[in-house]
User: Which sequence fits this backbone?
């Protein structure tokens, strides 16, 4: 089983990295929470938790209920996804690598003892201490940079600029409650239209554009959780259904870190054999 690469989280950023590792010929297993809160659902393999099967571009994830079903999914050249929020099955899997792609912005317990290669995306982990490598996820000059020591940049709370808009295009839950989505991904919305309700509180679009991301209806959220994303570029409809530039950049860095980890392991074996 040691050739397996385990991802904690299967959201949109994780999906770009899963695609890279999977295309490179390695078996990937995703561990998820029981109710993932993915806004960019159409490009997140974690949607398999709800739909049983989720396809993003050329890769498919299949929800399984136990490790006994994992090999069958591997034989289909697909990615199994299993509910295991605390990564309790790591000891049974003995993976080659563990990749924390939850983007939790805090340390949720992923560490070097879990696998020979350990990688974390974004802030919360110290490279060289908690995990072997950390990947910078903050937009800008250092996006996708590998860190061998230290921490990734702290979350700024400011969304990246798209079509001249930043904070205006991203929407957060105004309160604790249940999401009732009024619009779906790919829909056109006008300024002032209701995107969703959280319980009975309306969340209105601040700009005109395409709904690029929307939480599925019927999921409970806490105040401040991201629930929707509107893209002002009407020509960008296809972007709603393909892996983003940011995800590809981060995914490439994850693959780089993984290959560096393999190189280091081979060097250790060579030194031990001398």
Assistant:
């Amino acid at each position: 089983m040691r050739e397996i690469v385990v991802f904690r989280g299967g959201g949109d950023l994780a999906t770009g990295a899963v695609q890279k590792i999977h295309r490179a010929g390695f078996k990937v297993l995703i561990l998820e929470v029981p109710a993932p809160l993915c806004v960019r659902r159409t490009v997140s393999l974690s949607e398999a938790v709800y739909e049983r099967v989720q396809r993003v571009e050329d890769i498919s994830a299949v929800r399984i209920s136990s490790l006994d079903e994992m090999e069958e999914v591997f034989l289909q050249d697909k990615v199994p996804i299993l509910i295991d929020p605390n990564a309790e099955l790591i000891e049974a899997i003995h993976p080659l690598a563990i990749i924390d792609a939850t983007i939790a912005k805090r340390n949720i317990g992923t560490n070097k003892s879990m696998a020979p290669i350990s990688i974390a995306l974004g802030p919360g982990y110290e490279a060289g201490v908690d995990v072997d490598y950390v990947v910078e996820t903050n937009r800008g000059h250092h996006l996708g940079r590998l860190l061998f020591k230290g921490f990734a940049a702290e979350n700024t709370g400011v969304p990246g600029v798209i079509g001249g808009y930043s904070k205006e295009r991203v929407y957060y839950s105004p309160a604790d409650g249940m999401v009732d989505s009024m619009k779906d991904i790919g829909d056109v919305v006008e300024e002032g239209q209701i995107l969703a309700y959280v319980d009975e509180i309306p969340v209105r679009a601040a700009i005109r554009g395409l709904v690029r991301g929307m939480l599925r209806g019927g999921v409970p959220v806490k105040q401040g959780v991201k629930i929707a994303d509107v893209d002002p570029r009407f020509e960008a409809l296809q972007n709603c259904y393909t892996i983003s530039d940011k995800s590809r950049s981060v995914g490439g860095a994850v693959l780089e870190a993984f290959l560096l980890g393999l190189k280091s392991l081979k060097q250790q074996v060579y030194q031990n054999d001398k």
